Amino acid sequence: MTLVTADPGAAVAGIADGSTVLIGGFGMAGMPVTLIDALIRQGATDLTVVSNNAGNGDTGLAALLAAGRVRKMICSFPRQSDSWVFDSLYREGRIELELVPQGNLAERMRAAGAGIGAFYSPTGVGTPLAEGKETRTIDGRDHVLEYPIKGDVALIRAHVGDRMGNLVYRKTARNFGPVMATAATTTIAEVHRVVEVGELDPETVVTPCVYVDRILDLSAAEVSA
Amino acid sequence: MTLVTADPGAAVAGIADGSTVLIGGFGMAGMPVTLIDALIRQGATDLTVVSNNAGNGDTGLAALLAAGRVRKMICSFPRQSDSWVFDSLYREGRIELELVPQGNLAERMRAAGAGIGAFYSPTGVGTPLAEGKETRTIDGRDHVLEYPIKGDVALIRAHVGDRMGNLVYRKTARNFGPVMATAATTTIAEVHRVVEVGELDPETVVTPCVYVDRILDLSAAEVSA
Amino acid sequence: MTVSLNPDTNPDVHPDARTVEHTGRGPLDRDELAALVARDIPPGSFVNLGIGQPTTVADHLPAGSGVILHTENGMLGMGPAAHGDEIDPDLTNAGKMPVTELPGASYFHHADSFAMMRGGHLDVCVLGAYQVSERGDLANWHTGAPDAIPAVGGAMDLAIGAKNVFVMMTLFARDGTPKLVPECTYPLTGLACVSRLYTDRAIFHLGPDGVTVAETYGTTVEELASRLDVTLRTLGGREDAG
Amino acid sequence: MTVSLNPDTNPDVHPDARTVEHTGRGPLDRDELAALVARDIPPGSFVNLGIGQPTTVADHLPAGSGVILHTENGMLGMGPAAHGDEIDPDLTNAGKMPVTELPGASYFHHADSFAMMRGGHLDVCVLGAYQVSERGDLANWHTGAPDAIPAVGGAMDLAIGAKNVFVMMTLFARDGTPKLVPECTYPLTGLACVSRLYTDRAIFHLGPDGVTVAETYGTTVEELASRLDVTLRTLGGREDAG
């Protein structure tokens, strides 16, 4: 059964040191800032974080990085105009970086969620990001063998959830959320609003409840400063 | 630009002999019966048809089979209580059958649409349906290497389409439609109703217009007896 | 989300569990068998029920169990069979029978539906079988008869995808041949995938330790041992429930 | 859906096309360059515009062109930049700038968005570059400088995924070094993937036959040939447009 809570601490309880944490969002759109703040207070450290970017400004993922909790980032686009937290950590050699083309990042998480053992991707062939990887020519085209990226935990933001755990998203804030929800052992979603079971149209549910373990109801949450 | 037509003949024009045709539906739910009837009249033959089942009763896919237009069926579940057309053709040796586990069937078409060269599937390992296929142990689990199934044409049924080609489906009639739409060079959808651009909620579009080449508007179609 | 199997019947979590012999009655009928399967599905589970007999398990799930049914043709939250005006040709189960929708349902396409199965997100699936081997190999899609038209559907995906694979079948074929066997002779569906075997004569747990008899109905472990060509273990002890 | 590139500038379909030298003017400015790229995008195309300069191509697409913009963060039917009250933090482009939604838009998640790109469903993508080789190899994600923080985003997926990859860049670096080169010295983004190269000095077609000059601006084919270390072909003939 999905836990629905207004307590950010309860939402992130039990995340262990050394976990691989998938964090949704493309820049700040879809980033689960309240869950990340709760994770900072919760204290888990030595984390591997998988997210498209490596933090923007000083909030959300950037704050988690600044708190020194992240051993390694797996992402496609760390360098941004406002990624100063990651930039310093990286230049000081205080964080590892695995750079993954964005399509491979999404597809590798999808594979983890879908039970695919590995797949041949056309992306990255002949580039430094494919170095050391197995390649195969299929139908005259070269491909690189890519393996799943599985999370212990996914922290995502959706728009509305129902009490069973079904989720819908809003505009381009959908981005990595639905994929990460499938790829983690425990998926935790912060939502702007929780509705009763039956209020979401079954045709429009984007993340079915089977993928969602805990929901943080932001409309009811007591978010500490 | 997507062609929107009320003429079933125009919808299926140009399908060549020898084509691989993906046909949506799970049983009769989602089966594009009007397009199939038009394809029978259009006359293309020597077809390879990819569909979950091999026809029910005497209409739709069963009628195409009865017309002798199909050289080979690729499907997961040909044998049903009402699959007498396929059953006779098969027993008489007049049709080839490639049996594919349903999950591999769906995933192989997804791979075709998504540009995946091949993937390692956990399904079918150690069974006759994996005979002769490459296998690999990944993370302690055996997998079978599966290749994409690409269509020249997909014939699908959706519920509503807009004039740009965006589609929504209805209940379990959704089934293979969205996957097949991505996997074919030319995708042709019959829809119960066509609406103006802007009438579908962008959050709820299931098949984006980029995948749809032609729409047959059943509400306006003159369907011949 | 992970749910645990019923601890009362799960030797892994209940070391004092004993094999129970119901000798004062006959074999289970189909309805009783379905009820026993339903009993062992933990509340809140995500469950796929195969075509045919497994479908009847739904009728025995208690109200309020919170069990959510998946159907491979693209739905979570499937309700009971549809009747009369409820019948909608766009809403069917994997057996293509008209069904209904429960509050909290969702629809998705076939690749997403099988990703859900194959990715290990369903807690339990219940399947029929021609044969099950003592290692848990499953044969349920093809008799291997030369004139049979083979059809596999989603059986192979369910067999390897669900966290727990429950099989329902009669223990013996009509001619008395055991269907729990050392090695399947019918074409295989999946290797070492069956965790529980529910038959009219007994319920078996299958796993790395081999075949354990959990309960018998109208027979004893000894009698079963004499008719089956597989080694039978019992839980910690045995108890005659009469 | 497949669209064809503008036949007037496509030597494959217009065998009489001639290389045009615009010598009576200077190099193209950034706006003129974006307009030329926009000119060559066929009506009704599905197009992805990369971050930075390529984004400005949208401003030059004629009304009614029917071009549909894809943004990798999960949208088809992206509209122009959002201003004032239109700004919605949940609606951004690949550069994380606020944008708008056009009628007929659709949203999808990241795996579906990249499946669309990688599966070859986009007609054109427009990217910036550090270098392009005469074979069409692209280098646009990393300078290779030891202290640079690498970032690739969706560039590698677009490079191999779109049916036509257009590159916009200056032809020469600030120090005069050519950026159209025999072999890229910067880390590669994709192999043999660029089909059109739009620069301030010339427009090139790239393909199995090598580099063909379609148009020059403020220079001639001869002058370009003297400054570039690649073999330049011309279309069937040459024409000085003054």
Automatic annotation (TrEMBL), chains A, B:
<protein>
    <submittedName>
        <fullName>3-oxoadipate CoA-transferase subunit A</fullName>
    </submittedName>
</protein>
<dbReference type="InterPro" id="IPR004165">
    <property type="entry name" value="CoA_trans_fam_I"/>
</dbReference>
<dbReference type="GO" id="GO:0008410">
    <property type="term" value="F:CoA-transferase activity"/>
</dbReference>
<dbReference type="InterPro" id="IPR012792">
    <property type="entry name" value="3-oxoacid_CoA-transf_A"/>
</dbReference>
<dbReference type="InterPro" id="IPR037171">
    <property type="entry name" value="NagB/RpiA_transferase-like"/>
</dbReference>
<comment type="similarity">
    <text>Belongs to the 3-oxoacid CoA-transferase subunit A family.</text>
</comment>
<dbReference type="InterPro" id="IPR004163">
    <property type="entry name" value="CoA_transf_BS"/>
</dbReference>
<dbReference type="Pfam" id="PF01144">
    <property type="entry name" value="CoA_trans"/>
</dbReference>
<keyword id="KW-0808">Transferase</keyword>
TrEMBL record, chains C, D:
<feature type="compositionally biased region" description="Basic and acidic residues">
    <location>
        <begin position="11"/>
        <end position="28"/>
    </location>
</feature>
<dbReference type="InterPro" id="IPR037171">
    <property type="entry name" value="NagB/RpiA_transferase-like"/>
</dbReference>
<dbReference type="InterPro" id="IPR004165">
    <property type="entry name" value="CoA_trans_fam_I"/>
</dbReference>
<comment type="similarity">
    <text>Belongs to the 3-oxoacid CoA-transferase subunit B family.</text>
</comment>
<keyword id="KW-0808">Transferase</keyword>
<dbReference type="InterPro" id="IPR012791">
    <property type="entry name" value="3-oxoacid_CoA-transf_B"/>
</dbReference>
<feature type="region of interest" description="Disordered">
    <location>
        <begin position="1"/>
        <end position="28"/>
    </location>
</feature>
<protein>
    <submittedName>
        <fullName>3-oxoadipate CoA-transferase subunit B</fullName>
    </submittedName>
</protein>
<dbReference type="GO" id="GO:0008410">
    <property type="term" value="F:CoA-transferase activity"/>
</dbReference>
<dbReference type="Pfam" id="PF01144">
    <property type="entry name" value="CoA_trans"/>
</dbReference>
